[in-house]
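ok so i was messing around last nite and threw this chain in just to see what happens. nothing serious, just curious
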Amino acid sequence: MNPTLDGNIVEASSLTRIYQTGPAEVRAVDGIDLSIHRGEFLAFVGVSGSGKSTLLHLIGGLDTPTSGSVRVQGRELHSLSSYERARYRRTAVGFVFQSFHLVPSMSAEANVALALTFQGTFGTERKQRSAEALKRVGLEHRADHRPGQLSGGEQQRVALARAIVHHPPLLLADEPTGNLDRRNAADVMNLLREINREHATTVVLVTHDEETAGRIADRVIRLRDGRLDGLGDLDS
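result:
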């Protein structure tokens, strides 16, 4: 077991998210009970439509449940105001998506610094922390390059630097290697694992690649039709 684990950072109870598609009701997440340990590397796996991305978005405060609850660091997300949820997303969580979502006209360093700007961090501190985050992902030599001058793997590493620049306790990664070739995908996965181990950052990964998940995560949870379909054990 990872020695950094200490209590739970996420606790979900009867968590449900229902969408209306015309007359049809889609139960994207259907009554999930789940705890995620501090410092854990957890992977959600499942086919498209199994509910794994919706579950991640509920944990990240990007969506709100139809019923049930999700608590992160003791805070009930559903009870937060829109402003409080936005602040939670800016300060407590880092997001990495399949698409890089970088600003094309800005340099790599400026893209990373943007996350700090939203938090009110400016000047020398913002520049220093942005440079440190780029160095952490091995891109300090590409700081002045715009996204169009970077490879797909480099762009995703910039996105990862942006996600960790404010040192969030929780890092959520939704198919972060979906647009990458095999070598770059392995590099990004290894970076996620290193960040998890070095900083005790809780990492929650969504992926369809069960083989990679089993190799890199402490625990793998399979989802099917919005429900848990088997819990993996923490490595010991």
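not much to say yet. Strands lie at 8-21, 24-37, 41-45, 67-72, 75-76, 93-97, 170-174, 202-207, 219-224, 227-231.
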